[in-house]
Specification:
The protein has 523 residues and is α/β, with parallel strands linked by helices. The chain is built from 19 helices and 18 strands. The protein is globular and about 65 Å long.
Length: 523
């Protein structure tokens, strides 16, 4: 063990023990968080408007704080942007995390002096917990790369403003900056393809140990490295590369292709960061499923590089956020059912609602989650509130399409680059409507029609309403449109969303994406 990992190992074990302690009493942590943030914000404009001083119980809390989206909260945020203090949270924000929304345009998500350290702190804790449990700290002794947005910030009435990934670059401590790549100057390049070329140039001969980023953009980085060097695998270029960190999307659709490019499986750890807060992170690793965090800590080195049989990310219940969960089918109702952590059920699709120590109250972040465990509380991201197909009442979600396609593809040795699904309500060829799957294959099936039937059968098992529509002759079985290479990259480029933290929507209830992709259908 080299110098840096040797020094950090005791601290990593302390972090892991802390995670084990609070995760064992997550409900208690959540109750304390609710009371604490209400008390802290009682004298803000929002707190006075919503009678925070009268809140004593969770029932009181629900009565006075409505669920809202960005548009509902925007009048308060505009007051903050105009320089008014004590609006949503005491004082003024430390930062605005700037995001793009489909309906609200640019969003300005406040980050307070209390919440900001928890973004980097949780990422650090997740990585150190991995070290403590697996014994692999070698990545600390070499170079690391975080494929992220530009760290250049603008100001809004004196408040530094930029994308979360860029803000996070300002939070990296000095001791880690010597390991971090790419350079600051390269990270500031806005054009993704130009930036990627510079990153390849800077890292080509580095001792890369850890790579972190959104899987499709990491794939582009791998491919450019291989093109430049003529090597067959990434491990030939970076022989000490041992950990891949990711967040924001399900890794499984990308696993086979990325492992092929790397030259075999390596350890991965997954996180669930958002501009609104760091929601969850992976706390167990292959070989340690079924163990509690404290048990895995006493059995380090158990990991293998195979997928977890019981996936899920530990809900970050002790980080200044109070979570609520609304059954996804009720999220657009006037008075939906609202549950806190003590009331959730495993396997139910919930819309995630946040109340934070940055001043977000009853805020629907747009994601849906499902609990896979309550001891401790672990979740998977199942989709987006607005990304679904229900053109015929089926309400298909992202998790269902992924769990229909991937097992069929894996069994057949088919690798998927990217895909999305849309309804075809009025087929030009006539006949019954259907779900149209646009798939970019790395290696396409020999019999596409048979492959589509197998995926359709899996989809019918995933969603009983879809099955009823097929059985009742309302829909015909799904149709797959194979796409030419780089179709999705070109689509994202056309939308100005190439690189960074941007992700391709898995589902749409309209045909906006489908109409663009139709021109990329493979011959």
């Amino acid at each position: 063990m080299a110098f840096r990992s040797f020094l950090i190992r005791p601290f990593a074990r302390l972090i892991a023990r802390s995670i084990a302690r609070w995760s064992a009493k997550a409900v208690e942590c959540q109750e304390k968080t609710m009371h604490k943030i209400v008390e802290q914000a009682a004298n803000t404009a929002f707190g006075r408007d919503h009678h925070f001083s009268k809140i004593r119980t969770y029932e009181d809390f629900k009565q006075v704080i409505p669920i809202r989206d960005y548009e509902d909260l925007k009048p308060y945020i505009e007051r903050v942007k105009n320089g008014e203090p004590d609006v949503l949270w005491p004082g003024r924000p430390a930062y605005f995390a700037k995001t793009s929304g489909t309906t609200s345009g640019v969003k300005y998500i406040p980050m307070s002096k209390e919440s900001t350290p928890l973004h980097f702190g949780t990422a650090r804790n997740a990585a150190f917990n991995y070290f403590a449990q697996t014994g692999n700290g070698a990545w600390l002794d070499g170079k690391m790369i975080f494929l992220s947005g530009s760290p250049e910030l603008e100001t809004v009435n004196g408040i530094p403003t930029g994308r979360l990934s860029g803000i996070s670059n300002h939070l990296v401590p000095a001791w880690l900056r010597t390991n971090q790549m790419p350079s600051w100057e390269t990270n500031c390049i806005e054009d993704w393809e130009e930036k990627l070329e510079r990153i390849v140039e800077e890292t080509l001969n580095a001792d890369m140990r850890l790579i972190s980023g959104i899987p499709p953009w990491v794939q582009m980085y791998y491919e450019r490295l291989l093109e430049r060097t003529g090597k067959r695998t990434i491990l030939e270029i970076f022989p000490n590369y041992s950990v891949f960190g990711m967040g924001g999307v399900n890794f499984e659709p990308y696993r086979a292709k990325l492992e092929e490019l790397v030259g075999g499986p390596i350890d991965t750890f997954e996180t669930y960061p958002a501009s609104e807060g760091f929601i969850a992170f992976q706390d167990v690793f292959p070989g340690s499923e079924g163990l509690t965090p404290s048990q895995t800590l006493t059995n380090p080195g158990l990991t293998s590089s195979h997928p977890l049989t019981n996936p899920g990310l530990l809900l970050n219940a002790n980080a200044g956020m109070f979570f609520e969960f609304v059954p996804a089918e009720e999220i657009f109702k006037e008075n939906p059912t609202r549950r806190w952590l003590n009331e959730v059920e495993v396997g139910v699709n919930y819309a995630l609602i946040l109340h934070t120590n940055a001043g977000l109250w009853g805020y629907s972040i747009g994601d849906t989650v499902q609990f896979v465990s309550k001891n401790p509380y672990r979740i998977i991201v199942s989709g987006r509130v607005k990304h679904f197909i229900s053109a015929f009442g089926e309400h298909v979600i992202g998790k269902e399409v992924e769990e229909s396609l991937l097992p069929v593809a894996n069994a057949a040795g088919i690798r998927i680059v990217e895909f999305t699904v849309a309804p075809q309500v009025t087929p030009a060829e006539g006949g019954l409507p259907y779900h149209e799957w646009f798939i970019e294959f790395d290696n396409a099936p020999d019999d596409l029609e048979q492959f589509a039937l197998q995926v359709d059968a899996a989809m019918r098992q995933q969603n009983i309403y879809y099955d009823d529509l097929i059985t009742g002759n309302i829909l015909r079985t799904l149709k797959i449109r194979p796409l030419r290479r780089d179709a999705f990259r070109e689509y994202m480029k056309s939308e100005g969303k190439l690189g960074g933290q941007n992700k391709v929507p898995r589902l749409a209830n309209d045909r906006k994406i489908a109409a663009w992709l139709e021109t990329w259908t493979a011959k």
